[in-house]
Design a protein that fits this description.
rSAM_sf, about 30% helix, alpha+beta, globular
């Protein structure tokens, strides 16, 4: 798992995000469980074994699922098998039921608050805020 990736358990789903706000993604908790295993320097067969045993999958199904997840979340992975010196994420944190309705709505861009909010600070005013008391005539004020 890339150093910049963070995983966060939420109610019925999990959040994964990288350094840039565009990399945020709502996940099924089982997928976050998979990503947290990827942070431990394990090989895919080891991850498949743990994943399969945890979710009661046959070996063939577990390996197939891991292959799909490796492909799906490759933008979060660096495929490095060196063990991480400290544990960033505990896989046990992601062992809870998913809320399919929240995950389904996320595919259509309807994210629950605060996950659906993204702010990028530019440190310069564009005078487009709906509640701003400044206007274009005050551009000479260096604070804005």
């Amino acid at each position: 798992l890339k150093e910049t990736v963070c995983l966060k358990p939420m109610a019925g789903y999990a959040l994964a995000h990288g350094h840039h706000p565009s990399q945020i993604q709502m996940l099924d908790p089982s997928h976050a469980f998979f990503l947290s295993l990827c942070d431990k320097g394990l090989l895919p067969p080891q991850i498949a074994f743990i994943y399969g045993q945890t979710f009661g999958l046959k070996d063939v199904d577990a390996h197939s699922q891991i292959d799909q997840l490796l492909s799906k979340y490759r933008h979060f992975l660096n495929f490095d098998t060196t063990p991480v010196p400290r544990e960033r994420f505990s896989p046990q944190e992601f062992l809870y039921r998913a809320d399919p309705s929240a995950l389904d709505l996320a595919t259509f861009g309807k994210w629950p608050v605060p996950a659906g909010i993204s702010i990028t600070l530019t440190f310069s005013c564009n005078f487009r805020c709906s509640y701003c008391y400044q206007d274009n005539r005050q551009r000479s004020d260096r604070r804005w």
